[in-house]
Amino acid sequence: MRNKAEGGSRRPGAASPIGVFDSGVGGLTVVRALMERLPFEEILYFGDTARVPYGVKSTETITAYARQITEFLLQRNVKLLVIACNTMAAVARDAVVGLSAVPVLDVITAGAAQAAAATQAKAIGVIGTPATIRSEAYTRAIQGHDPAIRIVSQACPLFVPLVEEGWFDHPVTRLTAAEYLEPLLAERIDTLVLGCTHYPLLKPLLQDLTGPGIRLIDSAEAMAAIAAKLLAEAGMETPRRNAPGHRFFVTDVPHRFQAIGELILGKGLTRVEIVKW
């Protein structure tokens, strides 16, 4: 594992990679969806594993981290940036867009559109980190599609540490989830937005607790579809027709990172490089 200085003066082209970033390992759920939808596109993934979780930090700190990661990926000549972290998308999207000369996509926009289309009762629950929930970004985005939709939000600060620990169906996680979901279920929602890319790793547990009558919204697949459409319309689809060499940048290699990453992707997590700021 290494940290290597690389220049970013070239203009991104169709063969350039897609940059995806998150506060930790959770954004690999978005990477997996992108790999399935765009199998020939090279992906550079950045997980800020030394500073996770982001959701309990201040807006100023999150924005500073987002700027730092954005600059890092832009220096590596990416043609598209994907903010896979809901917390960064909620509070720092404008800062990322302001730095970037390439298109920027985010999971909140994708998830909100999917949720608004899915609800029949016009009652949607949103779970996320404290920073994401405080921002009300999902409320604005969903009601931008339909102002009549009622939004019930719940901060779940313990979910990210539990996922990073690999406790996807641990008794502690189940008890915690039941506590978080209770007020949402009392509001008779029919749709639940998993407002953090770590949360899809808890999807079987959450679906078991909510029951089959509530649809869980994971924005990763919607994000992949939006990315594919954007690249096709811009004529920026890669000409490559062989397996790309994806790269994974992290700021620390915490306990179980490799195992959890490989579980998410369903393949070996190779070319992991440690970044020291």
Quick description:
With 277 residues, the protein is an alpha/beta fold. 44% of the residues lie in helices and 16% in strands. Helix 2 packs across helix 3.
Which descriptors apply to this entry?
277 residues; alpha/beta; Rossmann fold; six-stranded parallel sheet; four-stranded parallel sheet; 16% strand
Fold blueprint:
Elements: E1 18-22, H1 28-37, E2 43-47, H2 59-74, E3 80-83, H3 86-99, E4 104-106, H4 107-118, E5 123-128, H5 130-135, H6 137-145, E6 150-155, H7 159-164, H8 171-185, E7 191-195, H9 203-210, E8 215-217, H10 219-234, E9 247-250, H11 257-265, E10 272-274
Parallel strand pairs: 1-2, 1-3, 2-9, 3-4, 5-6, 5-7, 7-8, 9-10
Helix pairs in contact: 1-10, 2-3, 4-6, 4-10, 8-9
